[in-house]
Protein 1
Amino acid sequence: DEKAILTYEGWFSIHATYKINFEKWQAWDTERQIKALAEFKAFIAKLEAGHQAETSSYALYNVAGGKGDILIWFLQPTLEEVTAKEIELRKLAIGAVLEPTASFVSVIEVSNYMKTDINHPKVQARLYPHIPRLKYMCFYPMSKRRNLEDNWYMTDRAERGRMMRSHGQIGKKYEETIKEFTTGACGLDDWEWGITLMSDDAVQFKKIVNEMRFDEVSARFGLFGPFTVGTLLDEERLQALFA
Ligand code: 76R
């Protein structure tokens, strides 16, 4: 048996976080603000058109706390397209007040631990997701430990399979409350995976992350980067954010 687990890749992904420079924004005259906001909304409408056509997807959230103000999750078929979308945003008039605070480049990943049927509609929906418009989003990068005692990459495949099964069983308990997306970032960014969670109840993020910390694979091997959490930015909230 191959040691590395087979993975299937879907759309390319960038999680991009920006702080709004409100000092700059508030110094703009009303006309300039209105034009910039309208252009930004047109950009979002274009992302929305791709999302509706199911040829790409995206999500737009208002970040809680000091890590940023806006988080845009771009999903596009190729690395060049996802790169171009992010640059297009920064070239807009509104880009002059958006200060990038974090970004994470990855690709949607479905692994074969559970003997995935690549043609199953559910697997296709994971690879090319139609991101739901749930009220809250939580994003964090993670890796798996590599040291002499606990090294995920030197652990038997069967052993890894056993741990992933247990992991999946915990995940299943949250089926009704949380939508989870795994993106792989080996060779693409500074962590091995990105975890994106969405829910209408932000407390569920705390519940699932806490419960998984007690499960063997996260307890022994999980290494976690910074967490970003936010609220869905619909048109009304977007207007209020820049008011
Ligand atoms: O059942 C299946 O088909 C999928 C089983 C499954 C896999 C293979 C699964 C289910 N995950 C898998 C892989 Mn997951 N997941 C995380 C985190 O905070 C933490 O402790 C970990 C972050 C969460 C919250 C989460 C949620 N998962 C992975 C991998 C790749 C592992 C590898 O290849 O080595 C990572 C890094 C990872 C991390 N996972 C689920 C969930 C949830 C909610 C489920 C159930 C989803 C469902 O069945 O629909």
Note: The mean pLDDT is 97.
Protein 2
Amino acid sequence: ADARITLHPDFRRGTVDRRLFGSFVEHLGRAVYTGIYEPGHESSDEHGFRRDVADLTRELGVSMVRYPGGNFVSNYVWEDAVGPVGQRKPFLDLAWRTVEPNLVGTDEFLQWAEREGVEPMMAVNLGTRGVAAAAALVEYCNGEAGTRWADLRIAHGRTEPYGVRLWCLGNEMDGPWQIGHKDAHEYGKLAAEAGKAMKLVDPSISLVVCGSSSMQMPTFGDWERTVLSYTYDLVDHISMHAYYEEVGGDRGSFLASGTAMDRFIDRVVASADAVGAERRSDKKITISFDEWNVWYLETRFPGETNLPIQRDAPRIIEDVYSGLDAVVVGDLLVTLLNHADRVPVAALAQLVNVIAPIMTEPGGEAWRQPTFHPFATTARLAHGTALDVRVDATAYDTARHGSVPTVTAAATVGDDGTLGLFVTNRSDREVEVDLAHVGAALELTEGWRMVADHEQAVHGPEHAAKVADACWSVVDTSAVVVGTVTGSTTVRL
Ligand code: AHR
């Protein structure tokens, strides 16, 4: 075989946190309106939320949903979107230059998340707003009766606190495109003060401080160091965001996106640990990889500036995906699993319509994009402990990422002994898995394969299904060769 994967149950990397399978709903394009929410749609529930989308969200295995942005949060006035819907005023969102009708706000989202069994991850506005609005929002969500903002929630009909545990201190504050963009010192100080106040409202919350918007940002590294110098003792996680796309037909580089993500994680971990080392701190800051996906940002999206002002949930960045994109999504999940010890939280950006695994038509169907399948299957099969997998594979050269391995793999072992093995083969060569150390009895129960087909669907359920049919298939486990070769139990894939 050209590549060999060796598993040993005693070589462990870390526990797979269920929050690794998070996603993201931003007030952007059709993510909320005609995405999760569409009153009058035939599948909508009594709250106006689409049942078909909620069912697909469950099938996708999403554990957590980040809300309400994204760039949107950096000019959001959350108070405008609570209370009687008839009294709410539309708001001009400057991030996407879209009129936000404020029909869905904090209560509607949190109650949807509760009904659907997903953990909410909230973000506060540290662009145009600050300490007071952030602390007030925590109180509105989590406070007990008897103080102003908690009582406002109760007056709006919700007595029980929502108990939101995860909070983002703003979004991509290093990006010049961000409304209220700040330099690292300005942001670090503000995040420290906002976070302090938020934790004084509710000490049980966890905080995510903004890291760099991508590894390509000119301030990358310096940003992490400076921001953590203000917030190290206060926050639990630092955020990472990364989007990958095929540029100029360079398939080899695109297929290596998981390796690029791997190196990015190593660098952020090193930056965080360097701050901890200087402080002689035993605390470890972990990663919230709260935006990741394939996004044809450079190639297809015209840019976030100079958009005309739009209304009525415009179609913005509705990327349509191929089998190749889905393979890359699967490979990115392999990378995340291989960092289970330092990445407990991640969010596929986004959930519905906007660079999303789930698509809808207003008044019409909801369907799965090809990227849906590797995510759903990994979320379903990756449980328990992530193993430290040994991969011996040849390397190939790429224009964007240098030398990368032809094969990547992650494996998990659940409490019931079920082994999950996740492999990306970036070449067409044979891969052998050495399972000799895993256990005497080996029963292959199910297998799935995504083929890196280039053909991209056109928007619509039939085409998405056609592409998925062509690329996504059950592996006939009886056809997988299981044998004993030089004393090892091997599986040939
Ligand atoms: O997910 C789309 C956008 O990408 C988000 O609003 C922003 O945080 C990032 O730049």
Note: Residues 26, 28, 69-71, 171-172, 291, 349-350 surround alpha-L-arabinofuranose (CB under 6 Å).
